[in-house]
Specification:
Largest sheet: 3 strands, parallel
Helix content: 25-40%
Number of domains: 1
CATH class: Alpha Beta
Radius of gyration: 12 Å
Oligomer: single chain
Distance between the termini: 10 Å
Strand order of the largest sheet: 1-2-3
Order of helices and strands: EHEHEH
Structural class: alpha/beta
Strand content: 15-25%
Length: about 80
């Protein structure tokens, strides 16, 4: 189990998603899980997020709609206390 859960909802951020993920990967603290929740993106965001392979990354689609639903869903998926 990871020590930290990072919850990252995203929607239509293909232009900046790579930079955001790189920023997380470049942190010195590495004992985390990244819970990335696609909030019904209409651009290439989901494909970009799916192109990363890291065992710490967990990818989901938001069953609801909007930021609050995505964050709440991410909290439900978190494995850290």
């Amino acid at each position: 189990m990871a020590a930290l859960s990072i919850i990252m909802p995203y929607r239509n951020v293909a232009d900046t998603l790579h930079e955001a993920v790189e920023s997380i990967l470049n942190q010195t603290f590495t004992d985390y899980e990244l819970i990335a929740i696609n909030d019904h993106s209409q651009d290439n965001s989901e494909a970009i997020m799916s192109s990363w392979y890291d065992v710490r990354f967990r990818l989901f689609n938001n069953p609801g709609k909007g930021l609050v639903d995505a964050l709440n869903y991410g909290l439900q998926q978190a494995t850290t206390p």
